[in-house]
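Annotators were shown the component list below and the corresponding predicted structure, then asked to write short factual statements about the assembly.
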Amino acid sequence: MIVFEHVTKRYPGGTVAVDDLSLEVPDGKIMVLVGPSGCGKTTTLRMVNRLVEPTAGRILLDGRDVAQARPAALRRGIGYVIQQGGLFPHRTVEDNIATVPRLNGWRRAMARARARELMDLVGLDLALARRYPRQLSGGQQQRVGVARALAADPPVLLMDEPFSAVDPIVRSSLQDELLRLQAGLRKTVVLVTHDVEEAIKVGDLVAVYRPGGHVVQLDTPERLLSFPASDYVEGFIGFDRGIRRLSFFPADRLDLGLEAVLGEQATVAEALQAAKSVGQPWVLVIDPERKPLGWAATAQLELLAGDRVLSGVPLTGYGHTFRPAADSLRAALDATVLSRSGRAIGVDEQGRVLDVTSFDRLRAAIRVADEAVAEQAADGRRAPEEVQA
Amino acid sequence: MVWSWIPDNLGLIGQLTRQNAYIGIVSAVAGLVIAVPLGIASARWRWLYPPVLSAANVVYALPSLALFVALIDYTGLSDATVIIPLTLFSVVVILPNVVDGLRSVPDDVRQAATAMGFGPLRRLAQVELPLAGPVIIAGTRVATVSSISLVSVGQLIGIGGLGYLFTDGLDRDFPTEIYVGLILVIALAVACDLLLVLARRVLAPWGGSAS
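Structure shown to annotators:
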């Protein structure tokens, strides 16, 4: 656990980078510090491994004041990842990763064997072991950076804008990778970013900074989106927080119903009958394997002869589907919005139709989820008020 | 060009070439050995660099002949009389490269090294100096080539390696000797330069920025 106790960093000249910060990073959790540039989040991070010394207050690492530790020894016990990895250009990938074990006195062969283990762990091809950093892509360099930070198996990991230098697709896969690693490693992580999306995606806890080195809200991502503590936080999070927070609600909470679903061998008359019985203007047509084929609008079916089979009727495309068991309400909403019929199809792993959603059902599900969050807040340990740092 | 002069004087030519190579290389190496710590100090304490650089430039402005003559009083007619001034010149050439090389180490790399738990000395030895290496070697190449060619000036006080062939050829109005000396000086310089290029390839296989 990392504990900040009334920590202030004032630079000569009077600039206050961090102002009376008190903060706890629980063991095994990812704490994200997020805020605009120059708000003191990086300074906060660097005080943990004493790259910056606080002007006042103290920082405890597992109960011990970091100011009492020898800096080099302290740092070898803390993993550190920076933008673009900060890799040593003159060392091969394996020797970069082996850096801290070597500093700790391991033999070269052992340190390199450890490096290869880590390459495997972070998803780097072992064929890259003898390459130099400049021969790698940005994403690969970043993975090497993470592997190097983990090489000596430190309990604490500090990450300073680790994924900002790569393109959005690579960034997203690196974030997924971090979460996958963290699920197995359970490190205590402090990650600095200016990207709210990233904070919400990877953080167990998110501390929102305001310029001047104040934390204005410290909360779980879910509650940050639901209950921003101030206009500043709300503005910083962005206008679509209402939709983004739906990522935290699993789609299996949706009350889904099978509406008018018919095989392609059914007739137009049967389809109209089915639509009428559920009072809906659309019927879903599926193939014998229960894979969706498309939507038929009752308005159009009425113009056709009643004995025509549905397989010969032009259908409206169903857009993309979602998986209630794995996706969030956000995915379900997205699929619903994109569908011409205003309905999204929930499928199982094999792509077979399970059920169908609609805006009404989504609205109900969101209300239920909101109430659950509010209830949690009511008995919760942390009320959604401003956390003064 | 009297070709037969060459085989007739192989012993002399070999001895002069060895002396020329010895004095030139020792001067460049001594220059490197002095320039590196001086450069490290100049990069570390920024205020130190301007006066050091000015002093070095003044040294460089001194005519080598004047230095040779001045040193005779102290070191007599020994190799040292030529080696000392050439070493000073080498220092002047290599020093800025050491400083520039160390300053060109990217900040994030230096910071990452500190954050990994390198102490200042280890960081210098294992990160900063290796990264500055290609730039330092580039300076050493210039210093080596110019030292080898400057050795011949020492002939004016009698210690000049292949310079002997120039003065002797001139005295005797015998151009063959001068040509042979010239070609050997160039060959020696090019050979040393190639060795240093090779050294850089071996020491900096990651493809440093300096050529």
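Statements collected:
1. The domain at 9-203 of chain B is CATH 1.10.3720.10 (MetI-like fold).
2. The interface with chain A takes residues 106, 108-109, 111-119, 122, 127, 130-131, 133, 204-208 of chain B (CB under 8 Å).
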